[in-house]
Amino acid sequence: MTAERVDALVATASDGIDFDGLRVEATDDGYAFETPDADHAGLDEAALRDVAAGSDYVSNWYVWHAVVPQKPDRWAFLRWLEGADVGADVDGSDVVARYDALTEGVTTEWGQLSITARLDDDEGGRRRYEVRHVDDVGRDGLDRYDDPLEARDLATHDERGRYRPLKAAPSLRTGWQFAALDPTALVEVVEAFYPASVPNWYREREGELDVTHWRETMGRQTGMYGVVKTWDRGEGYEHVNWVAEATCDDSQCLKRREWQYDDETDLDVDGGDGQFPCREPCSVVVSGARKWTKLESEQPRTYEFELTPSEKEQLEEVIDAVADGRTDEIREADVSDGANRFRARFLRAKLFDDEGNLAGTPTDRET
Questions:
Q1: pTM above 0.85, yes or no
Q2: Which residues, 6 or more positions from 177, have their beta carbon under 8 angstroms from its beta carbon?
């Protein structure tokens, strides 16, 4: 790549170059070439080629202007991955320090992805990227993939083979590795795992994230989803808080919720700490809201049950365990946990009748 980047530098020098500590310009006395480590003036083309040939600053300039995608969001994301961001801990203009770090590998997390950027020893400054699950860091024997399209399949099902309707859910399967991606392929893999996360992250950085709030989103619903329009201010506001608490918590989605009730009314629940923003209620939220709209239209009934204090607490523990998705973590022998399967079966055997009614009390659906 040395000849390519030096040719490109010479061809561009007449326009002037000022990037990451490299300054090159054509003057009446010849070319001027300056980096933090070198300062040359009055160079003819041959001398310019000589000083440019071994410079990491020239390599860095060429990579960022001729190799990586020039789309602004992708360009910014790739810069951020290696700490070349403005305001990042690593000074973007300190190319030598950045190249030293890239030689060892610079690792960043993006959702449940661990992304490591490295210099390609055979390509003189080009970057190569490795992507794996954060839980697989340090593990050997992972299945290797090279085609970015294969990331879509990996993102489709969780560890147990269940379909993942929400791609930002913290349920990405483990055991795979993309070992040596070029910059374009790296972004394609990231976008396959977390669609639109890079452009939305970039829009937010630029102060241009267009957020569509709850009421506007619900106002667009038609057909079978049109029922959610009936959830409006008053009781609706409290219900939307419940929806956000149920679906948009960090334990359920790795995005950071930026949408609110409307552009004047924030929701009470926290939006989470995700790296990339959520700009509008997703299909999972809308689908859940449709179901809850119907359920919440029912009028309360009064039922009387006799429960021991421990049975009441056990019912609360069962709901907590299901809501937090931890039922699979409860050991069969751990009967101290109210959501233990044997504890739950005992409670069902004691309190349910043959029709499945709690305490033998039928459900009252009369209006």
A1: yes
A2: 130, 131, 132, 136, 142, 143, 144, 145
- Per-residue pLDDT tens for 103-145? 999 999 999 999 999 998 766 789 999 999 999 999 999 999 9
The Cα–Cα gap between 282 and 259 comes to 10
In sequence order, what are the residues at sequence separation of 6 or more whose Cβ sits closer than 8 angstroms to the Cβ of residue 276? 110, 111, 194, 197, 198, 200, 201, 204, 254, 255, 256
For residue 243, the tally of other CB atoms under 10 A from its CB is: 22
CB 173 within 8 A of CB 166: no
CA 23 – CA 32 distance, rounded (Å): 8
User: Maximum CA pair distance of the chain?
Assistant: 99
Q: How far apart are CA 97 and CA 57, in angstroms?
A: 11
Dihedrals phi, psi of 45, to nearest 5 degrees: -60, -40
> Sign of the CA dihedral 182, 274, 166, 221?
negative
Q: Please state whether beta strands 17-19 and 106-110 pair in parallel, antiparallel, or not at all (unpaired).
A: unpaired
Query: Between the CA of residue 316 and those of 288, 320, 328, 346, what are the distances in Å?
Result: 22, 6, 17, 16
| ∠ Cα 341 344 345 (to 5°) | 85
Non-local (6+) Cβ contacts of 203 within 8 A are 73, 209, 210
DSSP 113-136: EEEEEEE-TTTTT-EEEEEEEGGG
Tens-place pLDDT, residues 355-367: 999 988 989 887 5
* CA 314/CA 332 separation, integer angstroms: 16
